[in-house]
Amino acid sequence: MLPQSAADLLPQKFPFQMIDTLLQSDETIIKTSFTIKDDNVLVSNGTFTEGGLIENIAQSAAAGTGYYYTSQDKKVPIGYIGAVKNVSIRQVPKVGSYLETELKTLHHIGNANIVEGKIFLHKELIASCELTIFVAD
User: Fold this and answer.
1) Are 135 and 64 in contact (CB under 8 A)?
2) Which is deepest, 3, 14, 60, 117, by most CB within 10 Å?
3) Helix (H) or strand (E) run with residue 119 in it
4) Residue 42: its pLDDT value, please?
5) Tens digits of per-residue pLDDT, 78-108?
6) How far apart are CA 31 and CA 38, in angstroms?
7) What is the rounded distance in angstroms from the CA atom of residue 132 to the CA atom of residue 92?
8) Contact 22, 30 (CB under 8 A)
């Protein structure tokens, strides 16, 4: 049942939670939302850092995986980033910004997923990257 709070789907907890809500999750697409607050640990000088943007994409992937596992009455697994490629940061958003993140699964090989993540601010693409993520079952 979506949308769903990310708190129940992520191993990460406050103050290191970089998404608020899982909006969509299926075999190929994951969508999340996040409002940047001033007490976020990855905010510096009123802006969400580049590392925060990449972590937002990684946690979006984790939320989609968490949703899949909880829908099967399984424990949410821990995931590990194996690689980050093709990073493009066009803009660092300010505190109070509402972000929507979309991930597309490019490949699934064993316990590894290769995903392309894109972050949008007011429908404008502000960041993207490709992640290889390993899930420890």
Assistant:
1) no
2) 60
3) strand 112-121
4) 97
5) 889 999 999 999 999 999 999 999 999 999 9
6) 23
7) 23
8) yes
